[in-house]
Amino acid sequence: MMTCDWNILLQISLVSTITMSVFLRTSLHPDSVTSGGVYLGALFFALVNLMFSGLIEMALIISRLPVYYKQRDLYFYPAWSFALPVYILRLPVSVYESFLWVAITYWTIGFAPEASR
Questions:
Q1: d(CA 117, CA 35)
Q2: Which of 110, 113, 115 is nearest to 22 (CA)?
Q3: Which of 54, 55, 94, 104 has its CA 20 to 30 A from that of 1?
Q4: In a domain, 98, yes or no
Q5: pLDDT digits (tens, 9 = 90+) for 33-80
Q6: Are 22 and 77 in contact (CB under 8 A)?
Q7: Structural domain that includes position 100
Q8: Is residue 40 exposed (0-12), middle (13-18) or buried (19+ Cβ within 10 Å)?
Q9: Beta-carbon count within 10 A of 105 CB
Q10: pLDDT tens, 2-13?
Q11: Contact in structure between 22 and 104 (CB atoms under 8 Å)
């Protein structure tokens, strides 16, 4: 599991570096409507990228479904006992991924003129 997390973090840092170079702050002006569309494009790309970064684990989740259905049908464990540990273990990784994306792209794209915002 740790190698998969490192791969995801490496992928996010690489994609955010490419995004940072595509939407450079020097070519965008916050007062024009055209640059506003580019800002919205950068926000949409960031949102889609962070939403689907966990899609890699879908195969692991699907492979565990037969065990879940068997234990559910035999009344061994409730459904939340399978969902809660995955959610708790995935939450710090998701926070770190979004922090890494914001740390690399936020100031360079120009969402705020100073880095302290």
A1: 20
A2: 110
A3: 104
A4: yes
A5: 887 888 888 889 888 888 887 777 778 788 888 888 888 888 888 878
A6: no
A7: 2-109
A8: exposed
A9: 22
A10: 445 677 778 888
A11: no
